[in-house]
């Protein structure tokens, strides 16, 4: 399915609206103490609502019609995608050479009680490090991600992430990043160093050839 003209902005807005509804559902479903019968009724209604969406789906190697890979539009990215049920979503922008991210994590991201799962922090950092690496003009794939957990990351608290490239060594790009709360940006919660590798042409073709061949 492809849409152009006014159809594409409307479709992207609709996908983001669905994503927001799904995130509300995930948040309520994760936090609910509703009666068991209400949970059973909700499960049935949700299955009914999901069915028509499954009538027309894209294949594994098909890019979403609303996405723009080269333009950086990925509505279903699990970290930043506004159409994703799983994404916080993390919102990233640039301030000079530094990437800044903001998000708030709900109950679905819980690890230790009332705090974020450590893997979620690593996921957020991988994404913002990858963003910093991409906008620096040296895009690559993560080959190593080292995370240091200094203090637990609180749920339901606005968070601030930063990332910047610290070294470019041939095809290897190193970036470092942090997570703090928005209110206390000097109190480090999690830090990370990521190593990214720029793909050789044959690696890009081997890994993404089927996707590149079908998009556009
Ligand atoms: C329009 C604007 C839009 C802007 C907005 C866009 C925003 C857009 C944001 C996207 C943000 C996504 C952020 C998520 C990023 C993932 O999550 S990527 C997914 C996770 N990563 C992977 O799946 C990668 C898996 N690894 C691989 O497939 C292979 O390792 C690779 C990457 C193809 C590289 O192949 P390889 O054979 O391992 O490495 P090779 O090519 O032989 O060597 C490359 C170099 O890297 C080195 N290297 C390899 N592994 C390591 C390691 N672990 N540590 C250190 N060095 C290493 C090698 O030693 C070698 O160095 P040199 O000898 O050249 O000095």
UniProtKB/TrEMBL annotation:
The keyword Magnesium does not apply. Keywords: Apoptosis, Cell membrane, Cell projection, Cytoplasm, Fatty acid metabolism, Hydrolase, Lipid metabolism, Membrane, Transit peptide. GO terms for cellular component: cytoplasm; membrane. It catalyses: (5Z,8Z,11Z,14Z)-eicosatetraenoyl-CoA + H2O = (5Z,8Z,11Z,14Z)-eicosatetraenoate + CoA + H(+); decanoyl-CoA + H2O = decanoate + CoA + H(+); octanoyl-CoA + H2O = octanoate + CoA + H(+); tetradecanoyl-CoA + H2O = tetradecanoate + CoA + H(+). InterPro entries: HotDog_dom_sf, THEM4/THEM5_acyl-CoA_thioest, Thioestr_dom. Its EC number is 3.1.2.2. PANTHER family: ACYL-COENZYME A THIOESTERASE THEM4. This is Acyl-coenzyme A thioesterase THEM4. It comes from Actinoplanes derwentensis.
């Amino acid at each position: 399915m492809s849409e152009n003209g006014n159809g594409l902005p409307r479709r992207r807005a609709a996908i983001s609206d669905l994503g927001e509804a799904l995130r509300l559902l995930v948040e309520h479903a994760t936090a609910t103490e509703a009666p068991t019968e209400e949970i059973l009724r909700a499960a049935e209604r949700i299955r009914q609502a999901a069915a028509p969406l499954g009538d027309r789906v894209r294949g594994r190697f098909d890019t979403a019609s609303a996405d723009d890979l080269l333009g950086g539009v990925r509505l279903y990215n699990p970290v930043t995608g506004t159409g994703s049920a799983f994404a916080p979503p993390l919102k990233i922008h640039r301030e000079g050479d530094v990437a800044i991210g903001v998000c708030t994590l709900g109950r679905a991201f819980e690890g230790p009680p009332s705090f974020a799962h450590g893997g979620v922090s690593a996921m957020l950092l991988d994404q913002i490090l990858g963003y910093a690496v991409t906008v620096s003009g040296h895009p690559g794939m993560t080959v190593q991600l080292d995370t240091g957990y200094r203090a637990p990351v609180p749920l339901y608290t606005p968070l601030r992430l930063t990332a910047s490239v610290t070294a470019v060594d041939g095809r290897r790009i190193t970036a470092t990043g942090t997570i703090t709360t928005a209110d206390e940006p000097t109190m480090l919660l999690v830090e990370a160093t990521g190593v990214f590798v720029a793909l050789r042409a044959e690696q890009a073709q081997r890994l993404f050839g089927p996707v590149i061949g079908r998009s556009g």
